[in-house]
Amino acid sequence: MLLLREAVDFSDVQLLTEADAAGKKSLWIEGIFAQAEKKNRNGRIYPKAVMEKSINNYIDNHVNKKRALGEISHPDGRPQVKPELASHLITELKFTGNDVYGKAKVLETPQGMVLAGLLNGGVQMGVSTRGLGTVMERSGSTFVNDDYVVMAIDAVADPSGIDCFVDAVNESQEWLITGDGRVVEKMQQEIKKTHLTEERKFQMLQEFFASLR
């Protein structure tokens, strides 16, 4: 699978300030968070059926359960969000035509305060999806397949395509991103069950990456 990261235009995201019943103000971003049936900056097309299925799953499993966290910028080669690095919480997502409109609350976390500072300082932020899936070339275009899964929606200032992920390992979720952007699972049961020194663990990791090249 590939780690797919897609951004929407900055002009599609608006900054809002809302107060709760107690008068406490919160910062929000709102606008188009994703698009289907339109070739994006990375040259990929998400069929509406593919995007709709993934977004609906994300709503059920993350948005409705208040688990739809996002970060500032895309991390290097990590599909999932680290809660300690979260800057905002997606609270709403819905399809209107081929566009996915969303709303996110800027959190009072260290990264959320950075995001709030950028927004209040006049920086026009964008949003960008982070997901896993495969692609297929057809009629000169790249289409995302039905196995696509949205992992997060991040706040970005300078969106770009996929970079080279040569040494990204996440212990908690067993993810590994290879140099061509492909995502594979790394089995670590032996390491977890055996008493290895940190030096040996690092050596095994180096050997593993060497085998990928």
SSE layout and pairing:
Elements: E1 2-7, E2 13-19, E3 25-35, E4 44-45, H1 48-63, E5 69-70, E6 88-96, E7 99-106, H2 110-120, E8 126-133, E9 135-138, E10 141-144, E11 149-156, E12 168-170, E13 175-177, E14 183-185, H3 189-193, H4 198-212
Parallel strand pairs: 4-10
Antiparallel strand pairs: 1-8, 2-3, 3-7, 5-6, 6-7, 8-11, 9-10, 12-13, 13-14
List keywords for this structure.
alpha+beta, five-stranded antiparallel beta sheet, globular, 213 residues, 2 domains, single chain
Class by SSE composition: alpha+beta
Helix count, per DSSP?
4
Low-confidence parts: 159-174, 187-191
Arrangement of strands in the largest sheet: 2-3-7-6-5
What's the average pLDDT? 78
Major sheet: size, sense and barrel closure?
Answer: 5 strands, antiparallel
Strand share of the residues? 35-45%
Strand/helix succession? EEEEHEEEHEEEEEEEHH
Q: Roughly how much helix do the residues carry, as a percent range? A: 10-25%
Q: What distance separates the N and C termini?
A: 17 Å
Which geometry do the CA atoms define? globular
Care to count the β-strands? 14
Number of domains: 2
Radius of gyration, in angstroms, nearest whole number: 19 Å
Question: Could you give a quick summary of the protein structure above?
Answer:
Helix content is 22%, strand content 37%. The chain has 213 residues and is of the alpha+beta class. The two termini are 17 Å apart.
